[in-house]
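Pipeline run #58 for the internal structure catalog. This entry was flagged by the ingest filter as a single-chain record with no existing model, so it goes straight to prediction. Upstream metadata was stripped on purpose; only the residue string is passed forward. Reviewer on rotation: M.T. Logging verbosity set to normal.
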Amino acid sequence: MYDRQQQWEKGSSAIVAIIEKGVRSYFESIEAERAFHLDDLVLRCMDGRTPGGVHLAGSGVLLGLEGARSFAKEVERYGRLEAITYHKDCGAAIAVAKEKGGDPFELAKTFSTELAKSLGIEAVYEVENDGWEGFHHERVIYYDGTGRFDWKRVRGLPIGFVISRAYLGFDIEYAKKELEIAAGIALTPHNEGGHGFGELFNEKLPLLVIALSQERSELGRLEQEAREVIASLGKDSSRVRVMGYHKTKA
């Protein structure tokens, strides 16, 4: 059983350091450039409990089959998707199930199977949540314009959602929708049905949205997209801070 307050305190030192030092200084201090490398091209949920590979909310169940196929085509700039995954307690699948009916897990499994079949991919499997079922422990949303970021590769990087913005240029509004959903999961208070740190986020220890870009020239656009989403959150926007980092190595 998890202790929410204990997990919050455990993760706060990195957040404080990022805010005080700035993203670039903090990333340099932990050699975070090593995080810009993927060990595989497996499609996983944007959930912070399913790190590694490339990401779509619910492995595409929210975007739909044609959109997910377009995403896979964008990924082909680096290589072919190796597998499609699904997981229990998926917020995207739960949202779709509320709209269409059915069991969220079976819906996610069926969608992943259909997507894999349409792409000619044989490997489809469930991934275990890296953390506690029913609890989201993300402190950051990584709005990844590089398509190559895996926070788990570097000790000291906060746990976070990953939105593979690099492969969503065909539907930027959808990328922003994923960001909005991730923020909602993180910020919703427990007494309102939230499953993240919720009301623990505040102006001093906010939810961080870190835009990541391949080139300096791209960073401003990604940060602006993120700011537009956060501004739409109303009073909750004061509990979120948008920051950015551009890669220094090819």
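catalog note: Helices lie at 4-21, 23-29, 65-75, 91-100, 104-119, 172-187, 216-231.
catalog note: The longest strand covers residues 207-213.
status: ready for reviewer M.T.
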